[in-house]
Amino acid sequence: MQTDGHKLGFADVNNDVVRSLVVTGRNYYITLGTAIFVMLACFFFPWFYQLFYGIGAAGMNQPTVWGTYLASFIFWIGLSHSGTLLSCVLHITNSEWRKAMYRSAEAMTLFSLMVAAMMVMVHVGRPWFIHWAAPYPNQMEMWPNFRSPLLFDVMAITTYLTGSLIFIYMGSIPDFAAVRDRTTGWRHHLYVLLSLGWRGSDTEWHRLGWAYTFLAVLIIPLAVSVHSIVSWDFAMSIVPGLHQTIFAPYFVVGAIYSGTAGIVTVMYFLRKYMKFEQYITTLHFDNLGRLLLVLSLLWSYINILELFTGWYSGTSTEYEQLKYKLTGYYAPLYWEMILFCAIAPLLLISKRFRTSFVPMLILSIAINIGMYTERFLIISTTLSRQYLPESWRLYVPSLVELSIIVGSVAMFVTLFLLFVKIFPSVSIYEVKETMPTPKAEKGDLEWQATP
Amino acid sequence: MNFIERFAASWREYRKPGYYDRFDYAWTMTIDLDRCTGCSACVTACQAENNVPIVGEEEIAKGRKIQWIRIERYWEGEFPDAKLKFIPMLCQHCDAAPCETVCPVSATYHNQDGLNVQVYNRCIGTRSCAVYCPYEVRYFNYYDHHWDPPLEQQLNPDVSVREKGVMEKCTFCIQRIRQAKDQAKDDGRRRVKDGEVQPACVQTCPSEALVFGDRQDPDSKVSKQMNDPRAYRVLEDLNTSPSVVYLKKVDADAD
After folding, report:
1. B184 and chain A: CB distance < 8 Å anywhere?
2. What is the pLDDT averaged over residues A50-74?
3. Least CB-packed of A160, A390, B145, B148 within 10 Å?
């Protein structure tokens, strides 16, 4: 833990984190209010309109029956990838710098998974029957189709969501206890419930440490499998441009890439507006920047491979697909994606860039715009040009679809804003682990009371 | 017989080669492109028989027309020497159908007649079957469609009207196949005779380009046509094994 200027004590950590929960300024309420309003106006209103009139409200047409809804779904699932996965990897590799940022990164996972689940509801034609995709005993004596990659998806995402939820909750129990001891009123009662009677005994710490590492090891392969399975929704079809073995690693790398960029964005705002300057420092941005650089190079490599296989396959359909992608109607978007996700991140080579906050924020947002474009292109370029030329047709998203994209971002922001007021968004006990043990001075016994 | 023995017995049965290919019938359609004039009578007949909605001009412009059978047109050459070719395109009722594996709720599956059927009531509208289908013959109901009076009087009572949010496609007029099978049973016959059942498009085709029948019966008209040297299947290299066989157009001017 780097401390700039004055030295942080154990009590300061407790006080700072509890302050972030309890003290709420006017700006917070204004932001929350705006986010909720945008969510209702841009997500729920158009969605209800679409439920009432039909999917026709979106711009989908005959060959391109999938659209931005599914692109958003992949995008949010991708964004969910870095939080818990990164936290787990860094936990088992004993990286000290993880400790100040992992809680909010895991929350990002949770909320983007929730938004992704909402996107599925928006995507399907009859969402009121969506429960049929879950295997449960019913009077129809019908099971879902276990051969379907979409069903694998349902399973994988549910498992990942459950796993991430347990992981973030379990890691927060000592913090809930710490906050419990420092709050009053309804908050106190809430944290009494959430902390499950944590007293901070040796046995408790031992068991928590063991279970936490166990879950971390369990979640890593799970996270990798989730996005592989999402890619199979596409790769298991026989559509030229989608039917590729590279898709699973392509999606996983892309997901971690956009997720890491998402963490940088969230870290920036958390640092600025929750006054966590002493906890989230240039060290974190430097390390995340290095990770982003590696991921961007990997991502570019896989993109080159994708072009190569298209060219090397020699089949006319794959080749036409490739040509369409590079020079066709959607080509400007393709080159925008290359600029944002492959060329711009090369700036990260410079340490000065990695340690300056505003450029990192701009780059991280640009990367996520590029990654959204990638998901959109995966759907639009391939589906609009399939085998039979007679049914080729362009796809342009409608106003309802664009509004729902904006609304889904607002939904994510709303969930995150509620989170920072309920969950200690910086891990109290793990930050303390990185600090030297304080020595008791006269009249300063506060550290003894903290669990 | 206890549970384990019963399980083992059925397991052995399921594992026999060809278990999943053994159907009561293997309904097949042959389309002779030499005879096809592109008159679109089949399209109209299908529309009337199967309550296929008329989506309207605006929706057609958006590319959301619903035609269970459509005439694909391909032009060859430039204006003075232009040539027009037709291919009627309908659900190919593939024996290895990509759409069947992807549906998460099994709303589309292979039935005992070797048909690829779509259960409208089960469909949740993920539209993944339409993405997986290389022939682009699955049509999605983007809206609820209605028939202005008195047009609703002409709806076929044997076929359901589909609601918004479900996928639909050619069924080989399954209601007529069912009727023919019932008739055969009532008459004490084991099987439907060749030519006894015809989908609406086949019945209407003025040049008899479309022929329908059971390819398990070696004497049926389709079986004979399938052995024609001109016979081919569309996108055969994708290994979907379609049940619609096309007879190539013989071009007298070709080199």
Report:
1. no
2. 91
3. B148
Distance from C-alpha of B245 to C-alpha of B74, rounded to nearest angstrom = 19
Task: Provide the pairing of β-strand B116-118 with B108-110.
Answer: antiparallel
Is the Cβ of B63 closer than 8 Å to some Cβ of chain A? yes
- ipTM of model over 0.90: no
Backbone angles phi, psi at B246, to 5 degrees: -100, 145
Residues B101, B97: Cα–Cα separation, whole Å: 7
Residue ranges of alpha helices (H) inside A236-281 are: 247-273
d(CA A267, CA A251): 24
What span, in angstroms and rounded, lies between the C-alpha atoms of A424 and B242? 59
- Report the residue from B106, B166, B167 with minimal CB separation from A144: B106
Q: Which residues touch B93 (CB under 8 Å, ≥6 apart)?
A: B27, B114, B115, B116, B170, B172, B242, B243, B244
Q: What are A258-315's pLDDT values in tens digits?
A: 988 988 898 888 888 777 777 778 888 888 899 899 999 999 999 999 888 888 887 7
B30 DSSP β-pair partners = B211, B245
The whole-model pTM stands at 0.89
Residue of A439, A437, A281 lying closest to A354 (CA atoms): A281
Instruction: Report the C-alpha gap between B210 and B42 in whole angstroms.
Output: 9
Q: Min CA distance, A146 vs chain B (Å)?
A: 7
Restricting to B residues 68-97, those with a Cβ less than 8 Å away from any Cβ of A are: 72-74, 89
In angstroms, the CA B245 to CA A347 distance is 58
A interface toward B at CB cutoff 8 Å? Answer: 53-56, 59-63, 65-66, 123-127, 129-130, 132-133, 142-145, 147-151, 154, 233, 236-239, 383, 386-391, 393
